[in-house]
Every structure is written in C-alpha cells, then in structure tokens.
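COURSE: Structural Biology Practicum
ASSIGNMENT: Worksheet 4, Part C
STUDENT ID: 0417
INSTRUCTIONS: Below are two proteins. For each, the amino acid sequence is given first, followed by its structure token string. Answer the questions at the end about the second protein only.

PROTEIN I
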Amino acid sequence: MDRYSVIREKRKREIVLLRGSGCKYKKCAFCDYYHDSNVDAAANFALNAAVLGRVTGEYGDLEVINSGSVFELDRDTIALIKKVCRDKHIGTVHFESHFMYADKIPALRREFDGVALKMKLGLETFDYDYREGVLCKGIRERDPEKIARHFDEANFLFGLRGQTAAGMTEDIKLGLKYFERICINIMCENSTAVRPDAAAIAEFMQAVYPVYKDDPRIDILIQNTDFGVGD
C-alpha cells in the first residue's frame, strides 16, 4: 500500500493516505474503500505518523485522504497534521468529508486557524435520483448551492451504467460553478456489485475527456491509483 506521493501536475501538492477508524456511513453502493481502517487508534497513529514523517512541505500544499472522513481520524493524528503544517510551512491542507459531517466543518476550520482548509465532498453526481437511488450516497439535498455550502472541492464518479456524455458534462459544469476544484474518478473494478460500464467510459474518453483534460481546476483519475497512493 503506497501512502505518500507528490502530485506534480496542475495543482502541485503532496498527498498522504492515512488510516482512521473507518467510514461511519459505509453505505455507498460502489465503495469498498472502508476496508482500509482499524479500530485501534494507537496503531493508526503509529502508521499515520510514519507517513506524515515523509512530508517535506515542498509545495506548501498537502492533501490528506483516508477511508472515510477526516473526522474519523484519531485526535493525535489531527494534532500531528497541524504540527507538520507549522514545521513544514504548509499553508493549504485538503481534507475529505461525507456530507453528514457538514455541520462540523466550521469548527475544523477554526481549529486549523492560519491554514487554508479545502474540504472535499464525495458528491459523485448532481443527479439526485442516480446519486441516491443507485449510488446510495446519503446526501439528502437537491440544491447545489446548499450542497456546496461547507465544501470547496468535490469528487465525481463517472463510467457507470446509465451515464452519458451529456450528463457527465453537466456534472462538470455544475461542479466548476459551485466548487473551486473538482476531481473526476473513473469507476474501477472492486469487490462491490457496481461495475464499470465500458460504454459510459468510452463516451467519457471520446466526448468529455478531450475537452476537460487540461483544465487546471480538474483532476482526472482514470485509475484510482493515479495520484500515486493506494494499491
């Protein structure tokens, strides 16, 4: 499992894949990411400390991901992230969070006072019926502005049965309207019943990817390890 990498394209930053207690939501139909977890906070901190020890502050920008939300990391890890930011002169930190923790984000921003906190939401799509009926995301909000209220960035999931170039393009346009940055993930095989759809992926690669591949506000992951972390 690779847990540290450096992203040298578009928004340059270091990225770490930490381990927490596990996703508390755990109902997304397409996700088995929550297996990377441990209920032993001390063991998680030991692992996370070793990973964070590799951070250099090269770009002053750090992305922190884990199998769930930042709020599922142990408090010692959170304290160490703050210390690393101080010691390495890191001015921007990116965290991920499920929508159910949205009301906790203002307090987290205050806790990281002096650091520009960029919160990323796993939104997957603005299409409410698809998002909740198929993907089971647990985001019971339809208004894009309300969805984005506490978040700066968003993940989108493409390459699924029923998705079209027009729908994916609409998601991208709305994503760029309501968020500072977006990340597009193409569905990859995993242990869930949700499978990549060859037709949808082909539509994306032919009609959508060429239009947006160089947009500085969009990261596109064809493989889920394209950031250099994971396995």
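PROTEIN II
(use this one for the questions)
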Amino acid sequence: MANILIVEARFYDHLNDMLIAGARSALEDEGHSVEVSTVPGALEIPAAIALASESGRYDAFVAIGVVIRGETYHFEIVAGESARGIMALTIDGLAIGNGIITVENEEQALARADASRKNKGGEAATAALALLELRQKFAR
C-alpha cells in the first residue's frame, strides 16, 4: 500500500470535486491511502508537491486542477508553467500523475472531470501509480 497525496488547485469547486472523486476512487480501489492538500492555483501545485516530497511521507502524487481559457494570455502561462513544473519534478524522480485539465470552456471541463465520462482524475491517479511502479522496478 502506498501513501498518495492529491494536490489540488481549488478554483472551480464542482469540477475539482469530480476530479478528486475520480482520483480517490482509482487509488482507494487499489488499496492505497489518500490525502488531499489544497493550494490557491495551478501554478502553486508543483511547489506544493516539491515541499511535500521533502517530508518523505508520500510515495506518489496526483495534481488536480482546472484551467479554463479566458480573455487574456494568462491561460497559456498557467497551463504551460504548471505542466512544466510537474514535468521537471517527474524527471527528477517523483511519481506524479498530471490531472490539471486545460480547456476552452466549462462544458469541456465537465466532460473531462466527470468520472462516468472521461475521468481525467482517475487517469491521473493511474498514471501516478504506473510511475511509482516503474520507480520501484528500477530501484531494485
């Protein structure tokens, strides 16, 4: 059993709740323990994961958030930089599933967050577990 931390950017409550439910279900169905930590926005997720990893309490991480395109360039910065930060941590050896969805509108977000549709939260959790398994395999 692994201890998994879900780090969520709590901005769109109803969408985050759906993503977390999908991730939690995928992890708990496999017998893993789950904790959730909340940060203000998607840009803070990589930093929170880096800080949490220093504790040694977590085996893997799931990043959860929703970034919906607005009228400014801010969307590109948040989407790109949060993904870059997560990728850098993953390359450094952390097992992270990226469940930050980046969409044009709320309809697209709902389709991706809903566990009965695209279930991106569950997919991110499954990705985190796959990376954890690979890390354990190569550590032998």
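ANSWER KEY EXCERPT:
Q1: The chain has a mean pLDDT of 96.
Q2: The longest strand covers residues 60-68.
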